[in-house]
Each structure stands twice: as structure tokens, then as C-alpha cells.
Amino acid sequence: DASPHPSRDGPATANVLAHITKQFGRAIAMPNLKPPVTTADAALKYRDHLISNLPEKLPHGSFEPLMTLYLTDNTTDEEIRKAHATGFVKACKYYPAGATTNSDAGVTDVKKTYPALRAMAELGMILCIHSEVSTPGIDIFDREPVFIEEIIKPLVEDMPSLK
Fold first, then answer.
1. How many Cβ atoms from other residues are within 10 Å of residue 29's Cβ?
2. pTM of whole model > 0.85?
3. pLDDT per residue over 45-95, tens digit each?
């Protein structure tokens, strides 16, 4: 598997997919685009865009984009259920707000995501995590260990069945 960040528009999408499909038969399509992929409908449109930009000849015979939603403070359990029901959205990606590229719409408080995360746990959806805090004053080399202590450990305790 690969986790590409192809752009939504322009020739970059086809170029990235040409390289990825040489080595992989599927890849996680990261949702941190502008605007981010926050709904099932947006994920399906992005999937259609990726498929329409695939090379004519695929070395592995096929290619499956594994779609993800961009988790926000406002992601609802209903949207999670809708995304899961598509059969194409396999996971959600947790970006701490301000921590990485296009993460300005990311999570500001993990507790705000709990209804969505509970639905994901119930459905067996995967949570992909950009594991670092963006708290001012935290040294860049301490951002991941602080995230593990402050976010991951309590999350695992609260939702042990979340994948």
C-alpha cells in the first residue's frame, strides 16, 4: 500500500498515479486537500477523479484508491455511517489543527470527535493519525511523544475497539 497526496486538479494527479501504479495495486488517498475531503460525497467525487486519471495500462491489472475522510471537530456519526455505506471509504484521517500541510480544518479537541469515532469503532473503520501536537511552546522533537500521552493513551482507554 501507499499513501499518496495527489492534487485534486491538474496534471499532478495523473503524474502521481502513473508512478504509484507501477509499484502498487492500491493506495490510501489522503484527504488533506484544499478543500479537505470531509464528506462521503466529496470522497466519491475524489475517487472518480482519481480513477479518471489512472494510466491506460496498469501493471497490476487494476488499482484501488482506498478513500479516507478528513476528520474534523464537526464530523458526525451520520457522515461516518454514510461514508462506510459507500464501500469505498475505508478510514478517516485525524490531523491535529495546524500540525501539517492543509491541517487548518483539523481536530482542535479530540473529545469533539468522539461521536464519529464511536461510529467508526462500531463499523470497524480505521482511524489513521497524524501523530503530533501543534501546541505552541512544545519542542518539535517532543510533539509526537506529547500527542501519545495527551491524545492516544486516553483515546485507547476510552475506545479500545477503535482500529
1. 27
2. yes
3. 999 999 998 988 887 788 999 999 999 999 999 999 999 999 999 999 999
- Residue 87's CB is within 10 A of a number of other CB atoms, namely 8
Which long-range contacts (C-beta less than 8 Å, at least 24 apart) are formed by 114-118?
Answer: 114/158, 114/159, 115/76, 115/77, 116/71, 116/75, 116/76, 116/77, 116/79, 116/80, 116/92, 117/155, 117/159, 117/162, 118/77, 118/159
Crossing angle between the packed helical segments 114-123 and 77-86, to the nearest 10 degrees: 30
Q: Give mean pLDDT, residues 18-47.
A: 92
* Average pLDDT of every residue of the chain: 89
Cβ pair 69, 106 in contact under 8 A: no
Helices (H), the chain: 11-23, 40-52, 77-86, 114-123, 143-147, 153-158
Fill in the amino acid letter for 43. Answer: A
Residue 1's pLDDT band (cuts 50, 70, 90): very low
Q: Is 67 exposed, middle or buried (0-12, 13-18, 19+ CB in 10 A)?
A: buried
